[in-house]
């Protein structure tokens, strides 16, 4: 998913209450490619291997993901990893 907000208008992916994404064996429960100014809040990812939430450069080293905020996110132990900075 390519999401590119701005400093004045970031894109927010916010769970309303307790939101659980069951990735059921997928490589990632949430994959953000080449995002800019994105807020991820209130999401839990389960059953994703190897990445619960994957935030990457979209295949271009010239435009890495930037200005990403993560709040109140969860991934159960041994059920995937957070990839990204």
What can you tell me about this protein's structure?
With 85 residues, the protein is an all-beta fold. It has one domain (11-83). It has no helices and 6 strands. Strands 1-3-5 form a 3-stranded parallel sheet, with no helix packed on it. It has a 3-stranded parallel sheet with strand order 2-4-6, with no helix packed on it. The model is unreliable at 78-85 (pLDDT under 50).
What is the element layout, followed by pairings?
Elements: E1 11-22, E2 28-33, E3 36-46, E4 51-56, E5 66-71, E6 81-83
Parallel strand pairs: 1-3, 2-4, 3-5, 4-6
Strand order of the largest sheet: 1-3-5
- Beta fraction of the residues? over 45%
Shape: flat
Secondary-structure element order, N to C: EEEEEE
Total E-strand runs: 6
* Share in helix: under 10%
Rg over alpha carbons? 12 Å
Look at the helices and sheets and give the structural class: mainly beta
Alpha-carbon distance between the two ends: 17 Å
Short recap of the structure:
By secondary structure, the protein is mainly beta. Helices cover 0% and strands 52% of the residues. It has no helices and six strands.
List keywords for this structure.
mainly beta, 0% helix, 85 residues, 6 strands, 3-stranded parallel sheet
